[in-house]
Amino acid sequence: MAGRRDGGMAGRAGHRAERPGAGSHTDRRGGNVLGSTGRWDAQIGAEAEAPPTPRPHPEGTIVTQPKMNVESFNLDHRTVAAPYVRVADQKTLPHGDVITKFDVRFTQPNEAHLDMASVHSLEHLFAEHSRNRSGDVIDFSPMGCQTGFYLILQGDPAMDDVLSLIEGTLTDITTATEVPAANEVQCGWGANHTLEGAQGVARDFLAARDEWSTVTR
Prior knowledge:
single chain, alpha+beta, Gyrase A, domain 2, 6 helices, 29% helix, globular
């Protein structure tokens, strides 16, 4: 797994963040806590309340922060193993319709991210081409952290069918001749596109097809 994250997808992304130093995650047993100013402060530790009880996450990870409204904020991003596809959320609407949201993660969180032009173009390409394959596609939108996308589908589809949809759509993207709606009339930033970049991201994700079902390290 480590070799995959050090090369391949991460190598193409070309943007890596420095890992925190050895002392930056010291817990209260070491005398340090994260203060309200965002810094680790030993003095605050003596007066702070006890940390919240660890809460098991559905994927088997442990999140020590209080439960939040946004599902991804309750995911311990240190324990996932990109690239992967997982169910992020599912809702039943007032009239009984079901929608399911999938976390389609392209790069390892906090280690690499995709460049914005490639993200933008892949969003356009996937949104258009996926609807040629399925009438259940509601939305395909990028994550703000630029490590992946959320795919929202109508119903409660089998994971194998979702993976097939993603695989088929990305394969179509690799042979596309243009980015759909990449102009000032149909897009809010028509100049910010790269067909080559989006196709490269798609090829890298497809190359790791056997790993998509492995969510955690």
